[in-house]
Amino acid sequence: MAEERSLAAGEARIKFSCTRVGSFWELVNGDQKEKEKLEQATKGLAELLLYEEEHGYAPMAPDGRIGGNGASKIVIKDKEYVLLSKSGKLPGKMDYKSDFCLVSRFDTEKWSCEYFSEQPETKPTSDTPMHYQLLKNVQGAFSALHGHAIEKEEVAKALNVPCSVEETLFSTPADTKAMFTLLEEYPYPKWKIFVRKNHGFYILGRDLNECKTVLNEKLISQENKISIPKMKKTHKRKVNNAARKKPYNLRKRK
Ligand SMILES: [Zn+2]
């Protein structure tokens, strides 16, 4: 797979430039109500991503990071942002403080973004360009869920899910363009789930609940009808062990 070869060659996972503007607290500017709204949105996304991972649809990459992420639009103080999970997410439960970013701007010419995060080292997922541009441009879509489990044309065909023709490197302009090309032929909301060849599946919804419903109906409930090459149970246990160890140690040091 092109992306794995690219990572193995030492190329960056994130292929756009990021500028951190400030923290969540600075963004809400002391407004408790806005802070709670942001916390609720973050919790909702964290729960959905854990659900995706526990069902094996966000497999672990060779570097131990999780191949899955999600996004949701949110308005803070009258301005719209895209809430995203962070790049290089570890397995297991996500933390509000360290695992999310709010992207305020994405420049498609410079291929760069501006974002807020609680911790300075947190960066938005490498799939930010795709999430941000889709949620900003596809009418009626407010949330998205993505996982690397379903990536083959044959599986997409068996599931009756549209699949892109060309393989594109994640995080690049070509990758986002391929998603829009797919949407031209299979428009949302008639179509809500897509497969990106050798990359993963992509779900669009009016909210996170709808994304979860699509995941349940189009993938999880089809598991006994067709063979879905998702994460095996043994692999899953290993992931959970790693999850228990890593975040705990990280927290302990603080
Ligand atoms: Zn991806």
Mind explaining what this structure looks like?
A hairpin with a 3-residue loop joins strand 7 (193-196) and strand 8. With 254 residues, this protein is of the alpha+beta class. It has helices spanning 2-8, 24-28, 32-54, 128-137, 153-158, 173-185, 208-219, 233-253; strands at 17-22, 68-76, 79-85, 100-107, 112-117, 143-147, 193-196, 200-205. It has eight helices and eight strands, in the order αβααββββαβααββαα. The chain starts with a helix and ends with a helix. It is globular and about 50 Å long. It has one domain (8-224): L-fuculose-1-phosphate Aldolase. An eight-stranded mixed sheet has the order 1-5-4-3-2-6-8-7, sandwiched between helices. Helix 3 (32-54) runs parallel beside helix 7 (208-219) and helix 4 packs parallel to helix 6 (173-185). Bound molecules: zinc ion (ZN). Zinc ion is lined by residues 127, 146, 148, 170, 199-200. It holds the Pfam family Aldolase_II.
